[in-house]
Structure formats: C-alpha cells, structure tokens
Specification:
452 residues; 8-stranded mixed β-sheet; 36% helix; 20% strand
C-alpha cells in the first residue's frame, strides 16, 4: 500500500526513504513507467552506474503491466521518452554541451557550481526539460547536483528523491539536510517504506543489531534512515538463511610477507565457501556473489579463483573503459561467480553472499608500487563512519530464496566487529559462537545460525 501510494501520487515534490530491501528501486521504476504511460518525459539518475541498466529493464517490465501502474494501456513507443543515466555521465554531457572552455577530460568539483551559474543566467531550453526527474540513492549526491537537476524539471513537473542514510557510503547525506536542499520546495516529513521484502528474518535481525551498534550517527539524518522491519509473511517461517561469521583479525603491524600470508587465508576461506555452496547446497555459481570493500584485494581474489578453475565475472579491472563495461554488464554472465565491490553492488541482491570485510589497502598499495620491499605500518583499529555504512550495505544484499535456503557468509578481518559478533550470538540466540581451527593452524571465530 505504501509503495502504491508513492507510485500513483502526482505531487510536484516527493521524497521518500526506505529500509534495505523495502522496494525503493521498484517504486522508482513503476513511478517512471506510470508517467511514461501518461505521455510524460522522464529522467532517472543514480550515483551507481551498475544500477542504470537494471532500473531501465525494471521500468520496461513495469510497462508490460499497465494495471499495476494505474493506467489502462501503454503505447509501445513510450520507452523512448525515458532517459536513464548515472550522474557523472550526465555531468559529462552537460560539460561537453555547455562548457566550451572547460577541461573535458575531468569532472572537477567546480563543474556543478559552474553549470549552475550558466543555467541561472540562461535557463535550459524547454525541450531539454523533463516532466519527471527521479534521483535514486540521493544520500550519495552532492548538494549542487540536486540544484542542477531541479533546473531541468518543467514548471509543473515533478522531482522525486529517494534516500537511505544508513547506506551513506560516501559521507554525503548531510547534503539532504543542508540549506541548498531545503530550497528545492520539499515540504513535510520524508515518507517511509519500513518493511523489508528482500531480507530473510535472520539477516534482517543481524543487520538491525549491527546498525544499532555502529550507525546511530547524526540525529538529523534519522528521518531518512530507517531500519528494516520484517513483512508479515509465512515464508519467513518456512525459509531462512544460514549465516556464518569467520573472524580472522588483521595484524596490528604488517610487512609485505605477513600481509600476503594473511590475505591467502582469507582467499582460501572464500574459495572453500564457494565450493561448499555449490556442492552441499546445490547452487549454481551465478546464484552466489562475492563482495569486498577493497579493489586491490578483489583483483587478487579473482586471480586466485580463476587459477582454481572457478570462472568469475568481476568489476575490478584497472582499465577505465573495461571497468565501465564490466559495471554496465553486471549480472549478465550466466554460469559465472559474481565478484564486486560492495559499493557497486548497492541496490543489487543475491540468494547467497560471501562478504569479505577488509581494511582499505590504499596506503600499502602506494608503498608497494614505489618499490619498497619491506613496508611496515601500524593499522588503525578505528573504522570510519562510512566504512560502517559500507559493511551494512554488504550485510543487506541477501535476498530471501523461495526455493531453498539463502546464505550469508562473513569473512571479517576487522577486530572492531569481533565483540559485536560475540555479543549478538550469546545474548540474542542467533547461533553458536566458538573458535575453530582452519588450515595451517589458523584460529578463527565462527557463528553458525540455523533458521527456525
């Protein structure tokens, strides 16, 4: 009901938030489809380029069900009135079209402000404006981007923004409470989608407890960042999710050799879990997704998996043009294990997720690239707020599988979360918490959760 009201509401300004798995992207697609069916021109933009083909496909699918978007019939050519583009692609087009003297090879931070000045002096032509502009994942946007997009909305057109502060992985959600945002004409509180239709009960419980521990954050953001509540469904009683937590703490002080040995343990455990899911759980490779929060680690992991004859479809290429194609083709390779950064998988889902949570490796990579053979450092044990949000996004990518059990495997090297895992399991009866011995006598903590 809450989703449907957002789809059919024709207010000129709508902003809504939703918990992970509450159907925000579904609402975006169906609202776009409804407006297209009514003969309107629509633009949908998002920060995450991997979501753009998916949103377009979902909108096209919604057009084939006119009764669900509140119209009688749909003209077969209406999709031509839809523009789906990630925000940096849009900025690049605007730059090439209107900034003749600007450096076309970069999207510098001054560009949005420059474009705003240009369009305030000479507003965009009417034929360039849209009846509806939808901003998906608004917590990732800069304040100037909101202002710029609002100039391309027709006089009686609509601007729709969706956001979730709990998934603020770029530290930008403060822009949704700033003065520039307040000047866009939004009134009243954020509308909310509270129920999660994606997450199995055990994962929803775990992610809620995690968010309560690490993502309380700024009170001013709470109005557009809510925790998932389970939908009323018998399926939650019939089908659950196996949750496993492997803890292998990152060493406080490392060298090149010790880091290599440590990462080998993480990669070996990942390989073991992939094979276990395929053999014991009878899953196909493309039903499994491996997520990590570090590109350089991801590249080495994919190399290791490929050497072990596990075919992968990843988005870790260093080459920009190849990486762009990888992102736009996310999820299109049948029979391949999906491997992605958590950032690029935001908005996506999988029946089984292997989440590898590591400290960022950027400073080590730079030192290693400079030719230093013996690199030594002390690793900070404090994760930044956006790192907590990234982990939350990873936790909430699991989709409830109606045909069998879903799986969430967490391989974590961040010691900050060890006490959390211990507390959650012992106090909230999520499962057994014990120490196990992996290969090479490496000690690790593991949680086993068996659904009801």
């Amino acid at each position: 009901k809450d989703q449907q009201s957002l789809v059919t509401d024709d207010l000129r300004r709508i902003r809504f938030t939703g918990a992970a798995g509450s159907g925000k992207t579904l609402v975006v697609a169906m609202k776009a489809a409804r407006n297209l069916a009514l003969g309107k021109k629509v633009l949908i933009t998002s920060f995450n380029i991997t979501m753009i083909p998916y949103i377009r496909a979902l909108t096209n699918k919604a057009l084939s069900h006119p009764e669900k978007i509140g119209v009688n019939k749909v003209d077969k050519y209406v999709l031509s009135n839809l523009v789906t583009i990630h925000i940096h692609g849009l900025l690049s087009i605007l730059k090439r079209s209107f900034c003749e003297t600007a450096d076309l090879d970069t999207l510098d931070e001054e560009l949005p402000e420059l474009l705003l000045k240009l369009f305030r002096k000479a507003p965009p032509k009417e034929e360039l404006k849209k009846d509806l502009i939808i901003i998906d994942e608004g917590q990732d946007f800069q304040a100037e981007w909101f202002q710029l997009l609002s100039l391309f909305v027709k006089k009686n057109g609509s601007l729709v923004i969706t956001a979730d502060a709990k998934q603020d992985i770029y530290d930008k959600s403060c822009n949704l409470t700033g003065e520039l945002f307040k000047g866009l004409g939004f009134k009243g509180p954020w509308r909310k989608l509270k129920a999660t239709y994606r997450l199995p009960s055990s994962v929803a419980d775990l992610s809620c407890k995690y968010a309560e521990n690490f993502l309380l954050g700024d009170n001013s953001k709470l109005e557009f960042g809510i925790l998932p509540s389970l939908k009323e469904s018998n399926n939650s009683l019939l089908f659950g999710c196996n949750v496993s937590w492997y803890q292998c703490n990152y060493p406080d002080t490392i060298s090149k050799d010790s880091l290599s040995a440590h990462e080998k343990i993480l990669m070996t455990k990942c390989r073991e879990e992939v094979i276990k899911l395929c053999t014991q759980n009878q899953l196909n490779l493309d039903d499994i997704c491996v997520l990590c929060n570090c590109k350089s680690f991801g590249r080495e992991l994919v190399k290791k998996l490929n050497e072990d004859n596990i075919p992968t479809a990843s988005i870790f290429s260093k080459d920009y043009s190849i990486n762009r194609k990888e992102k736009l083709g996310m999820g299109s390779n049948r029979g391949y294990l999906k491997c992605s950064t958590i950032h690029s998988f935001k908005g996506w889902e999988s029946y089984s997720v292997i989440l590898i949570n590591v400290y960022p490796r950027e400073d080590y990579d730079k030192a290693n690239a400079s030719g230093k053979k013996d690199f030594l450092r002390t690793q900070s044990k404090v994760f930044r707020q956006k790192d907590h949000s990234v982990f939350y996004v990873g936790l909430t990518r699991v989709n409830e599988n109606m045909y069998g059990k879903s799986n969430l495997v967490i391989i974590n090297e961040v010691s900050d979360y060890q006490s959390f895992a211990d507390e959650v399991c012992k106090k909230n009866n999520l499962g057994e918490y014990k120490e196990v011995t992996l290969k090479d006598n490496v000690k690790a903590k593991i949680i086993f959760h068996q659904p009801t």
